[in-house]
Structure formats: C-alpha cells, structure tokens
Write a structure and sequence with these properties.
mainly beta, Porin, Immunoglobulin-like, 4 domains, 8-stranded antiparallel β-barrel, about 10% helix, rod-shaped
C-alpha cells in the first residue's frame, strides 16, 4: 500500500499546468436559442410552461477561437470570437410584409399566438465577441472543473426597424456570459475542454430582430422578456505558448546534527526532480557565512547552535528549509608535563614520590617498573630491591593518550660503604681456585648480588719466581676469578679481568716457602658501574 501511494503521488505531481503564458483556444459545438422565434407555445422563455429543451428544438452550430493570458495555473482572461448559425433566426419567405405602427417595412411571421413582426429577409448568422475570466480550482489534477464569467457583444440580425424605430441601423447586443466546464490536461501545454456557456443578450431585438413589445399592439405576438438567451454546448483545445513552470520545492535537507569546531560538514538540499530548470541554490550557515549549490560544505569556528537555511529558486518561485547544527569544542587528547620522581635515587625500602601535571586526563596509570601500579598522582612507592627502574605514567581520555617515563635508581646504603672485596690466593705456579679461594669469592658474590651498581676490576699477579711467563699466569688467575663470578650469576658486563704480571711488592725472603705467597693473588676492586 505504501508503494502504491508513492507511485500515485508521483503521477499526480507530474501534472503541471501552464502559467504566465499567452494561450490560444479553438472551440466548436451546438447552439441553443431562447427568444421570440424559438417556437415556445406561450411565447415566454421565462414561463413556468417553458422547457429547457425548447432552445434546442432546432439547434444551430458554433465555431470560434480565443486568445488570452494565463496569470497562473488557476486563473486566465481571454478575448474570443464565436460564429453561430441559428436556423430559427432565418425568416426569409415565412410571411407577408407590411407596415407597422412606425410605418417601417417589417415581416409578419406566424407565431403560436399571433403574427410576430421581424426584419424582412433575415439570415441565420450571429457573431459574438467575448471577454471571459476563467477559474480552474484544481490545477494539480489532470481533470478539473472550471467556471467562466464575463461579458459579450452580440452582432445579430436586429435593426432599429424591428423595435419600431426609424432607419435600418443594426442593433448591437450585449450582456453577461457565464459557463461551466471540465478541463483535461493532455500535455503540459495542450488541454482539452468541454463547456456549457450561456449568454443573456440585451436589448430584445438585437439577437433575433424581433421585439413585439416595441409596437404596443395586441395584434403582435412575441415573448414578454426584454432579452434573449444563447446557449453554447461544445468543446475544444487550448494551447499555451509557453511551457509550464514547475516550482522548485525543498523536499528535505541532509545536515550533520553535530560538528566539532573546525570540522568540515557536508550539507545537501533535496529538491523535486521535476522542477523547471534552471534551479539555483544558496545557503546561509547562521554564522555570517554563505554558500551556493545544491551541496555545500562548511566549518564553524566557534561552538554553539546554528540554524542552517537552504533556499532554492527557479522561475516558479522560491522555497527554503532549515536545520539545526550543534557545534561542540574540538576534543583535546590528554597531555603530561613535568614528570618527576622525588628523589630520583633511593635506597631499597625508601619511598619515592612520582608526580606530573596532567591535562584533560580521564584516567591515570603509573607503572613503577617492578610489577606494581597506581591509578592517581602523586603516587608513592617503595622498592624492595635495588636496581634501575623506569617509571611510566600514562594519561588517557576518549580522544587519545600521552605517556612519559622517569628513571629511578634504587640503591643500598650498605653498598655505599663497600670499598674493598676479598682477595684470593693461588698456589705456587697454580691458576686454579682453591676451596679457600671460592669461599672468599662467595662472600664477594653476596655483596655483588645485593649491590647491582657495583662493578669489579679483577687484578691478578704473579710473584716473579714462578716458572713460566708471569703475565700469562696473572691473566689466567684473573680469568679464573671472573669465570667463577659469572658462573654464580654475576653479569659479565660488571666484570673486568686484568693480568698485571709480577706484583711489584713481591718479596720471597719474607715467605718461608718458594716465592712470595702473598703476591700470588687476585684482587677484586669494587667501583661504581657508572662509566665502567
């Protein structure tokens, strides 16, 4: 049912009648006559005994044309000419001639109630000039009724002679015209019409040349009315010289309901496709800016509520439609500034404060780098283990995120006091570690595990009396210590093994054994890993 309604509406919308155009009209049909010569038995067309069909007992015919102007699809005015042939008006050979009371030659023809004085040798031709206003109420319908009103000049067969006057000058009739009809739109410019039109003609003698009342004699018969009536039934064609104009209408607008400041929005005006071109479109965006075309784009520079108006125009008129656009501030992603840790170096177990300046943030996350987090600033935390940590602060909202990082060094006050580590000693000519040496190194390893910021330089020596190359022996001893450290989990990056050769302080005389046992050693020299 919905589809059928749309189709019917579209079909109805295609009926366009011409407007603001000159038109030409051709017509024809039958003519009825009501007057002294219509054969009415009582001689009076206004009598209760008269019949509507009396005027068409002996009908005539009519042809004519009209030229006029269509002010709009509903209203027009035209000037027309109609030729009518009415058989009842032709009285040639119908009766004797004689003189009337006015001593003028007239013809007496038999009537229902006595002779009727008429012009001698009358013909049957009548000409009529009309001026008519025509109103058609349903211009959007393919078939519409119409009414017409106006006036007419009638050139019939009457002269002064028939109204008991002197001379033979023609008497021109006049009177009102009224009509009803149906108009059928065949094309936008061409129409078919069917009409019934009636004209009341004054004076009585003008149309038919008969006015018995003018003689003031009971011998002469005619109707009692001071007028005659013409009735034309027929149809014809109307053609408008200018094609009709279909006014453009805004059927709808496509507008964004919401935009951000600076964001381009697209706007479109949807108009009826049958509008007569050219069609121009313009836009007012409510902020002082304007645009043109059926489609336009615009960006607003300030937040607010704006009324956007589209106006369309063609020769058929103008139409407009508006929509409301809400402009909101452009979304701002969060930002972080001044990210800091106070203090940036702490001992294990000592609290550090993490802080920053966050703007437009809906959510804050602080990752301390040791598996723990916080959700607000400032955030406080104590690290259980020494080491270097990277603290990450993340600020988020619906439009994005921002991140900053802060280094935090966690030390141990115990480590700050470490200035020396245990040395280890080797047998004469030996480069392998003894049980006593590994025990000493284990103590060093405990310190290095607790103090990850301490690095070690291993300086190894020979006593100078040992067989073989002293430099090679000292380097082998340094490498043995380093390998033990690494084997126990100390990062090799924290270690440096250096063979120093013969200990310059070696003195074999002070040692009862061979050489100097105190010189056959490896020293672990602690230092900061910074710049190691």
């Amino acid at each position: 049912m919905g589809a059928a309604f749309l189709i019917a509406s579209a079909s109805q919308a295609q009926v366009i009648r011409p407007s603001e155009s000159i038109y030409i009209l051709l017509r024809g049909g039958v003519t009825g006559y009501y007057g002294d010569l219509d054969g009415n038995s009582d001689g009076d067309p206004g009598s209760a005994n008269a019949k509507l069909s009396d005027g068409f007992d002996n009908p005539g015919y009519n042809v004519g044309g009209e030229i006029g102007y269509l002010f709009n699809p509903n209203l027009s005015f035209g000037v027309g000419f109609t030729y009518m042939d009415i058989p009842n008006l032709d009285t040639r050979g119908q009766g004797p001639t004689g003189r009337g009371p006015g001593a003028n030659d007239i013809l007496f023809i038999p009537g229902p109630n006595g002779p009727i004085p008429v012009t001698k040798n009358n013909g049957s031709a009548v000409n009529m000039v009309t001026g008519l206003f025509r109103y058609l109420p349903f211009d959007a319908s393919r078939i519409s009724p119409f009414v017409e009103l106006g006036g007419a000049l009638v050139f019939g067969v009457g002269t002064d002679n028939e109204r008991n006057g002197s001379g033979t000058d023609a008497v021109i009739g006049y009177g009102p015209v009224a009509g009803l009809g149906l108009d059928v739109a065949l094309t936008p410019q061409l129409g078919l019409f069917l009409a019934a039109q009636s004209t009341v003609v004054f004076p009585d003698v003008a149309l038919d040349g008969a006015d018995a009342g003018a003689f003031n004699s009971p011998r002469f018969n005619g109707d009692d009315a001071d007028f005659d009536i013409l009735a034309n039934l027929g149809g014809g064609l109307r053609f408008a010289l200018r094609p009709p104009v279909k006014a453009v209408r805004v059927l709808g607008l496509e507008c964004p309901a919401e935009l951000q400041v600076g964001q381009n929005g697209s706007f479109m005006a949807i108009t009826n496709q049958d509008a007569t071109p050219p069609v121009t479109s313009s836009w007012q965006f409510g902020d002082g800016a304007s645009g043109s075309g059926s489609s336009a784009s615009h960006a607003f520079t300030a937040p607010g509520t704006y009324t956007v108006t589209a106006m369309v125009m063609n020769d058929g008129g103008t139409d407009s439609e508006s929509c409301i656009v809400t402009v909101v501030p452009r979304p701002t992603p969060p930002s972080l500034a001044g990210c800091r840790a106070t203090p940036s170096r702490v001992d294990a177990g000592q609290q550090v404060t993490i802080d920053a300046t966050a703007t437009e943030a809906d959510e804050i996350t602080v990752d301390f780098g040791d598996g723990t987090t916080a959700s607000s600033l400032p955030a406080r935390h104590a690290y259980a283990n020494t080491g270097s940590y990277t603290v990450t602060i993340t600020a988020t909202n619906e439009y994005g995120s921002d991140t900053c990082t802060i280094p935090v060094t966690v030390g141990d006050s115990y480590c700050a006091d470490i200035t020396e580590l245990n040395p280890v000693f080797f047998g004469y000519g030996a480069t392998t570690l003894t049980a006593d040496a590994t025990s000493r190194l284990e103590e060093n390893i405990e310190i290095l595990r607790r103090c990850p910021d301490i690095c070690v330089t291993i300086n190894a020596y020979s006593d100078g009396s040992e067989p073989g190359d002293a430099m090679r022996i000292s380097q082998a001893r340094a490498d043995a210590v380093m390998q033990y450290y690494v084997g126990q989990g100390i990062d090799a990056e924290r270690l440096r093994a250096v063979g120093r050769g013969v200990d310059p302080d070696a003195n074999s005389k002070e040692d009862p054994g061979p050489g100097d046992s105190r010189a056959r050693r490896a020293d672990s020299i602690p230092s900061s890993c910074a710049g190691f």
